[in-house]
Amino acid sequence: MSGNRRRGSRRRERAERPAAETRATGGGAGRASARPGWRRTLDSWGGFTVVGSILAAVAVVVVLVVLNRPGASVNDDPYVPVARAAVDGKSWGSASAPVKIIEFADFQCPFCRAFSHDVEPLLAQEFIDAGTVQLTYHHLAFLGPESGRAGEAAECAADQGRFWDYHDLLFLRQGRENGGAFSNGNLKDFARELRDAYADFDVDTFNRCLESGGKGAVVDAATQEAASAGIAQTPSFLINGKLLTASQSIEVFRQAIQQALAASGAGS
Amino acid sequence: MRLRRVDALTALSAVGVAIAAYLTFVAFDTNAEAFCTGVGDCRRVQDSQYARVAGVPVAALGLAMYIALLGLGLARRAGLTVLGPGTPRLLGTWTFALAFAGALYSGYLTYLEFFVIDAICEWCVTSAVIVTTIAVLAWPDLRHPASDVPP
Questions:
Q1: Is there a domain that residue B151 lies in?
Q2: How many distinct structural domains can be found in chain A?
């Protein structure tokens, strides 16, 4: 019974198809043959709708591939380790330095990156290495989930005495905000880069620490502490308790440090 | 009883919705981790820089695609003709175009898994197989969509 119905349906289909195809090609045989060659080729591929849909599909895929092409979110410049003396956790410089600078930063903040790249080396050369300044990093991770994860990863590196080295890598590899540059996979890749530079760095320990999520509370607490203290932007600096905001030039820091030294009586 | 292609397409789309929904949930919940049988490394794939396009998880894009495919499949099964007598052909074309785009992009992502990320996510590979199967099954509809319309 159902077989008969199916055969009947097929016969009806065959009978209807020529009429449908005639409609699809726009009319009689005379009009079809009058069409230019490109149009007949297009029709043989299913007409504008079919070819247009396939081209649209290809275009969508091309856009998607371009949007997450390799290197789109991670800067792959080579990592050059920086030698630092007197590092203690997130503090860099002598603990007895007369000027204490607390830097409030977010690893996704481009101005913090600018400070790290442009001003920090000059501060080190002039003040930190001389024992005048101790620089301490304080999380203000407020730019989204990757800020928090990057902060946690830096804390995990700090457990092995490599906070500042990992900090360098994070700013070196900074990408679009929450665009995947600080995905868990990349954070682990940065740890492997660190191990390549420092053989004693234990990647497995780092990975376990990162996966546990245990440092999330540390970063959150630091961020809340900064917010409670009225620090509302990154980077911000407390120089012996005096607030300096934005990524300033070395001249501005020099002046602020001299003032702090004078105020403490150590600059005379 | 012979399974019609449109039924197979719709069923595969439903499976795709389930997989993509799970991966989207994992992508948005930082504490969640995709279940992996040990053959691959789903976490490494999900955490890679390629797992998001302009901040949107790839899994969410896949979910949107499968929901659209499911909708198209259901519309075809219901024999909708809201867009005129050419509706079945149009729905068939859209189904193919969408699945074709999904298959192409899944191919690109699978290439990344094998040769760039160096890790395989079984869910992603399963999804790639599903969407490629849908594209293959939908291909004949570009020419003879009426064969799937219920009599």
A1: no
A2: 2
Least trusted range by pLDDT, from A21-25, A89-93, A156-160, A183-187: A21-25
Specify the 3-state DSSP secondary structure of A92: strand
State residue A80 phi and psi, 5-degree precision.
-110, 110
Tell me which DSSP letter residue B116 carries.
I
Q: In whole angstroms, what is the distance from residue A7 CA to residue B144 CA? A: 17
Domain that holds residue A27: 2-67
Tell me the three state secondary structure of residue A181.
Answer: coil
Of A13, A178, A213, the CB nearest to B55: A178
Tell me whether residues B52 and A180 touch, CB distance under 8 A: yes
pLDDT surpasses 90 at B71: yes
Q: How far is the alpha carbon of A217 from chain B, nearest alpha carbon, in Å?
A: 14
Contact A68 B50 (CB under 8 A): yes
CB contact under 8 A, A185 and B49: yes
Domain annotation covers residue A40: yes
Question: Nearest CB to A61: which of B48, B101, B146?
Answer: B101
Q: Write the pLDDT tens digit of every residue in B47-57.
A: 676 788 877 88
- Tens digits of residue pLDDT in B109-144: 998 888 777 778 888 999 999 999 999 999 887 765
pLDDT at A220: 96
- Could you tell me if A149 and A213 lie in one domain? yes
How confident is the model at residue A158, as a pLDDT? 97
Interchain pair A70, B116: CB under 8 A:
yes
Q: What is the total count of domains within chain B?
A: 1
Looking at residue B72, which CATH number applies to its domain? 1.20.1440.130
Report how far residue A197's alpha carbon sits from residue B113's, in angstroms, rounded to the nearest whole number.
27
Q: Does B133 touch chain A (CB under 8 A)?
A: no
Closest C-alpha among A223, A218, A240 to residue A102: A240
Arithmetic mean of pLDDT over chain A: 84
- Domain of A108, CATH number, reads 3.40.30.10
**B100, part of any domain:** yes
Amino acid at B139: W
Could you tell me if A197 and A127 lie in one domain? yes
Q: What is the pTM of this model?
A: 0.54
Pick the residue of B41, B49, B149 with the most A CBs within 10 A to test the interface with A by mutation. B49
Residue A80 included in any domain: no
The whole-chain average pLDDT of chain B stands at 82
Residue A53 has pLDDT above 50, yes or no: yes
Q: Are residues A59 and A26 in the same domain?
A: yes
Decide if B55 and A176 are in contact by the 8 Å CB cutoff: yes
